[in-house]
């Protein structure tokens, strides 16, 4: 499976997951824009070396790439990133929205300065980069877009209300763009990666540090050893094949979410239980039939709002008096 003559834009590609995506796509023939501001895991500072070093590594391996250091956090930055690809190669076939930062804290401590930067990078950043690329993809009737979500939002994780909210907003963007791109051969999917990167290390160090305050030294040593053994298996390179497949011309799916880590791939999906129906629904009926409402037997997986409405109308019609 190759990407010859295709152009990929990958944000946050100076290291971690993004760099592995760039290395793999370039090795399969893609021309890659390596975008990275070189900031810290919390978004502080900037360093152009991150992008240029990754580009040099790609070139040393025989690939073709250029560096870009614009920020995803503004419409102007997003346009400039896409313009980098257009000026160099005249097209954009693939966008991988991978750039991200973390600023974990208990919910009561999530002030605006902890929330807004994450929304700017993760959610608004994906908008700012994807929108100018979308115009190009519409004209060429082809495109592949991959957004990055997280189990922190899909399933919930303590101290990550800002991160989880921003990441799960990308699920909505993915689903809507998949619907809008269906007739244009633009496929849009999301990935929830599990990999040992700077971001995960930052979160793990914070969690183990809090745990250490509660444990004695011997117990903490055992915990640290177990964590280290687990993390060693979370090689970011093992996530890259899924990112590459979902952005390949042969990818048959759109609007879907895949969780990937340590060589394992699975699909997250949004299901709907069969539920309970009453034409005169009351609070007491909700209470009394809660188990039935929550029962996962015979669940369905709606492809979109039309499926949801069809299921509702089918239930209403099936319960009409003769």
Brief overview, please?
By secondary structure, the protein is an alpha/beta fold. It is built from twelve helices and eight strands. It is about 50% helix and about 15% strand.
Describe the protein's architecture and organization.
With 322 residues, the chain is an alpha/beta fold. 49% of the residues lie in helices and 14% in strands. The chain has an eight-stranded mixed sheet with strand order 3-2-1-4-5-6-7-8, with helices on both faces. Helix 4 links the parallel strand 4 and strand 5. The N and C termini lie far apart (58 Å). 39% of the residues are buried. The model has no long low-confidence stretch (mean pLDDT 93).
List keywords for this structure.
322 residues; 49% helix; globular
User: What is the helix tally?
Assistant: 12
What structural class is derived from the secondary structure elements? alpha/beta
Global outline: globular
**Main sheet: strands, sense, barrel:** 8 strands, mixed
Oligomerization status of the protein chains: single chain
Terminal CA distance reads 58 Å
């Amino acid at each position: 499976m190759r990407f010859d003559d295709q152009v990929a834009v990958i944000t946050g590609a100076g290291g971690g997951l993004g760099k592995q995506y760039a290395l793999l796509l370039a090795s399969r023939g893609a021309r890659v824009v390596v975008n990275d501001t070189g900031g810290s895991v919390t978004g502080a500072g900037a360093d152009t070396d991150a992008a240029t070093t990754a580009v040099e590594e790609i070139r040393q391996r025989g690939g073709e790439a250029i560096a870009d250091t614009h920020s995803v956090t503004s419409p102007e930055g997003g346009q400039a990133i896409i313009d980098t690809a257009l000026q160099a190669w005249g097209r954009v076939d693939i966008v991988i929205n991978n750039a991200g930062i973390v600023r974990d804290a208990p919910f009561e401590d999530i002030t605006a300065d902890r929330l807004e930067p994450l929304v700017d990078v993760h959610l608004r950043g994906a908008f700012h980069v994807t929108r100018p690329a979308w115009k190009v993809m519409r004209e060429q009737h082809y495109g592949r877009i991959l957004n990055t979500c997280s189990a922190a939002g899909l399933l919930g994780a303590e101290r990550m209300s800002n991160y989880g909210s921003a990441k799960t907003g990308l699920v909505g963007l993915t689903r809507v763009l998949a619907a809008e791109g269906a007739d244009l051969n633009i496929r849009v999917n999301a990935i929830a990666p599990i990999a040992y990167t700077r971001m995960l290390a930052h979160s793990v160090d914070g969690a183990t540090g809090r745990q250490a305050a509660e444990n004695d030294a011997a117990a903490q040593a055992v915990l640290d050893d177990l964590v280290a053994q687990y993390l060693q298996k979370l090689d970011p390179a093992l996530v890259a094949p899924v990112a590459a497949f979902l952005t390949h011309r042969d990818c048959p799916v759109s609007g879907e979410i895949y969780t990937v880590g340590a060589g394992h791939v699975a699909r997250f999906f949004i299901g709907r239980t069969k539920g309970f129906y009453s034409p005169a629904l009351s609070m007491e009926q909700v209470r009394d039939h809660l188990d039935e409402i929550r029962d996962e037997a015979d669940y369905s997986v709606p492809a979109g709002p039309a499926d949801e409405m069809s299921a509702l109308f089918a239930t209403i019609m099936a319960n009409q008096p003769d």
